[in-house]
Amino acid sequence: MTKIDRFYYDNDIVRKFAIASIVFGIIGLLVGLTIAFQLFLPDWNLGIPWMTYGRLRPLHTNAAIFAFVGNAIFTGVYYSTQRLVKTPMWSKKLGCFHFWTWQAVILAAAITLPLGITSSHEYAELEWPIDLGIAISWIAFGINLIMTLVKRRESHIYVAIWFFISTWITITMLHVGNNLEIPVSMMKSYPVFAGVHDALIQWWYGHNAVAFFLTTPYLGLMYYFVPKAANRPVYSYKLSIIHFWTLIFIYIWAGPHHLLYTALPDWAQSLGTVMSLMLIAPSWGGMLNGLLTLRGAWDKVRQDPVLKFFVVAITAYGMSTFEGPMMSIKSVNAITHYTDWTVAHVHVGTLGWNGFLTFGMFYYLFPKMYKTKLYSIKLAEWHFWLGTIGIILWVIPMYWAGVTEQLSWKQFSPDGTLVYGNFLDTVTQVIPMYMIRAVGGTLYYTGLLMAVWNLWKTAKQGTFVAYEEAEAPALERIKHVNKGHRWIESRMGAFYFWAFIAVFIGGMVEIIPTILVKSNTPTITSVKPYTPLELEGRDLYIREGCVGCHSQMIRPFRSETARYGQYSKAGEFIYDRPFLFGSKRTGPDLHRLGGKYPNKWHYDHMFDPRSTSPGSIMPRYPWFQENDIDYSTLESKINVLRILGTPYADGFEKKAVEAAKKQAKEIAADLKENGIKTPGLENKEIVALIAYLQRLGTDIGKGETTMK
Amino acid sequence: MIHNYKFLIYFDRLILLFTFVLFNVIQTQMEAIYLLIFMGAVVAVGFLLAFFIAVKNGQFDDSTTPGIRMLFDTEINTEKDKRDKK
After folding, report:
1. Minimal Cα distance from A512: which residue of B?
2. Looking at the domain assignment, is residue B38 inside a domain?
3. Among residues 21-50 of chain A, which lie with CB inside 8 Å of chain B?
4. In terms of residue numbers, what domain contains A76?
5. To pair with B58 at 20 to 30 A between CA atoms, which of A27, A237, A509, B75?
6. Residues A268, B33: C-beta atoms closer than 8 Å
7. Pick from A157, A186, A209: which residue ends a domain?
8. Into how many domains does chain B fold?
9. B79 and chain A: CB distance < 8 Å anywhere?
10. A516: which chain B residues are within 8 Å (Cβ-Cβ)?
11. What was the ipTM of the complex prediction?
12. DSSP assignment of A429-493, as one string?
């Protein structure tokens, strides 16, 4: 006679994460809305450093991904896993620990990012102390998840949980891989890798963050909540298994599609393209499985807002996973890269797939957990339509802008000159699209606020069930015949293969770091390390988030060499820690900026961009003239960089401040000659920044350019 | 799994020779990619192993009932549900 167990599902932890997700959704998406407006109202930062676009953009991305989506993931994982394995979460304490440490990380992000404390690695901007916090929180989550599975009452592990497991494993690897850094101070570190190395690691991480944080957990949630909400089994369980395994194998290889036409070797670019294209199959397997689950239940979709949100979410997933592979084709990428098309692509996925699935899930969960009906179906329907129209008005102008941007950048007149030689002309053309996008975002945000109200009222009218009683048969533990090492040993081929792997690992762990750290033999002999002053200037560039609007990677296209100068060579970046290739040209590429404009131009331009460039949407940076350069970490910076391979002479760190001040005096003297009367100018941050900007791209000598 | 293991003896020596030569002859900016491809391969092989183990443990023997079984609620909806925390 099988024993029937009685136990309680933990809804308390689910609700904690749900509330956190909603709160940070309100904040994170508001930041997004703010920066959308700032793009055509550049003074919408009240003149405050931490409200400038460059600093708020990473706050938005981190809040949206880790705070809004992240907490939603945990909400759904904790709810569904318990019920799928018919077992409560293994440890309430660990769940709470996970919850509070995760929110602590978010709080740390909210403080540090606007202050300009950033590693500049996209979606991994948080500096090293917070990275440690993320690791601790994530490990707590993993232990709880795995132990719950160990204690499960259902021997079959439903496909959703496979997605959750793969998420946990891969994100762990990615987090470690992209945060290999040596601290310079409590709030600053330099990455182990430099230049093109660093770019590759970052985009290996970046794409897999999309894959294993924005996709696989949400596919898992889809496989639980869609069948549950429709009361229909998944269309094809077989298909879910096939596409799961295919997806996780292929996704890891798609990273190079972020680096097409850059200094990444051709074969690596091609590999990324091929894998990205192959990815259409498993991704669409997921989409079709999700949509076809609603076969025969379309009348329910008409009546139920939850299902409506799911349908649009899954469709958006299908769109992005078709578009992404298309954008991974080099000829398409040549048009989309650095433009607003990429941004549009991101937001089809985040607003449509992640956002809408999250909303559907909350509209499903709150009535269930509060043992009541949704407060207002009508309001949820309003949210659905507003949100959908919001997505359309967000995305379509950005496609339009993207094509406009790139084609303008590429356009030559019959006599061989650039039609839009002044970059600004390409920017002003897309301002109307930015405005429409902001309208779309406002609609989407309004929908979010409707959801908050609706869920709040639902909670108020119901009674929360913190621990829900359930019953299920206990699982008979089946004894495995071949246990542990004996299993391997009875299979000699496998044994040899795995022994080889073990040896290979040992070898590589020794070889690779040696090569990597040693490999700063310049491939271009004229490329020298940054001077101390230029280093400080570079770190100011990083602090302000300039990389969010400006790229430093000129592609080998005639339109780019005509506009900017020689295309960027891998060897020029060997001392760049971190790399600053950039992903978007809201402003022009800066890799060959050095020597193009006099020091005074930069002084004026940073103070008020519109004084030198009428119509510019760049925010003002008046504090560069007010703040003194902080040399307190300079010695440590030189030391760390030397450890990482930059050939600063031994003992140079002691003379670094002196050298910086000497170079600063020269620049200040030049500025003075041209009419700048600021007292103590040689100590001001603007001088360091100018030193850095004037150095950019000058090592290989000036190339031909027809740019004004 | 892998039945013909004789070739592996030559295969791994070849790999080691190849990487030794490569690392000493060619220096580009791209050495990080070996680490990444290696890590990708390790993860992929790890997933492959997990797949084989899952097949062996009968995870995929039944691909019909899991989709239907998950639709049934195990919650009892009694008065014993704890409305307050703890």
Report:
1. B35
2. yes
3. none
4. 9-157
5. B75
6. yes
7. A157
8. 1
9. no
10. 31-32, 35
11. 0.74
12. TTHHHHHHHHHHHHHHHHHHHHHHHHHHHHHHHS---SEEEEEEEPPPPPPPSS-HHHHHHT-HH
